[in-house]
Amino acid sequence: MSKKIIDGIMGVCVADALGLPVQFIDRETLSKNPVVRMMGHGTFNMPAGTWSDDSSLTLCLMDSLSNGLDYEDIMKKFIKWYDKGDYTPFGRAFDIGGTTSDSMERFLRGKPPLECGGKGERDNGNGSLMRILPILFHLDSIYGDKLSETSEAYDIIHSVSSLTHAHKRSQMACGIYISIASLILRGADLEEAVRQGIDKAMEYYRSLPEYNSELSHYERIEEDGFAQLDESQIRSSGYVVYTLEAAIWCLLNTRSYRDCILKAVNLGEDTDTVGAVAGGLAGLYYGCDNIPKEWLATIARREFIEELCSKLEQHKLDISDTSRYIDNKNKIC
């Protein structure tokens, strides 16, 4: 199994589970009694190691991509989660965001997949950003180190976001996130991956007039002093821009997976999703071996998560083999 797939996906799931029990608790309260370990019960009264919709939808996307990119199939797997509790720790979907729920209902009423996502200003929650990471592995198999410079790759990222969140601001957050993740995947130094990932994505969005009105929302992460901002200037609500900012800030201000995720979760408010978004990048960079063993040991359905990672890895290998075959056929001797 590609270690990078399980690094990133387990990074999401563990951070999600760490943040879930304290979701909606404010920062001041957490500062007095911070999260320092995997806990149970709390906000949703679930056992320790329970992950939420963040991980469930990530796993849905990963499972679908194991058979290739098919937007209809992705939505069908989302519906299995939404209606039947598939891809959940205990057979029941919970903590479903409004924009995501609305998109599921549109699909059930017969809307085409790419027309289901919310397009309004108020549809810019973090519900597509939290589940976007698996598309990295699919796109890397096709575009390699050119991913963050290729318009077709961004089009696919935007389409995957648009299944639930179709506003350009949400699409941009996903594009920036995958651009950073692609450089981490390729072995770049952490600060370099963040800086170049943001720069490459923003260069792309500046070239498209339809994104001009959205550029200002991501100005802060481009600033040289962003990492030095005081914690009081970092917000951690469910708004997609704040979630992306918080995840990047936590990543730049820590030096381990453990410290990154504890910092993210203890920001308060949307703790599971800020954790999950930070966790995907931190998992990719530090590796699953550096996730605390006691956290991993607690994760619900860990073998199921690993099995889905293995399926996606096999698909990646199949794509790579096909690409090499086509390249060899097209060689001029």
From TrEMBL:
The keyword Magnesium applies. InterPro entries: ADP-ribosylglycohydrolase (IPR050792), Ribosyl_crysJ1 (IPR005502), Ribosyl_crysJ1_sf (IPR036705). GO terms for molecular function: hydrolase activity; metal ion binding. Its cofactor is Mg(2+). The keyword Protease does not apply. Binds 2 magnesium ions per subunit. Keywords: Hydrolase, Magnesium, Metal-binding, Plasmid. Mg(2+) binds at S52, D53, D54, D270, D272, T273. Belongs to the ADP-ribosylglycohydrolase family. This is ADP-ribosylation/crystallin J1. It comes from Peptoclostridium acidaminophilum DSM 3953.
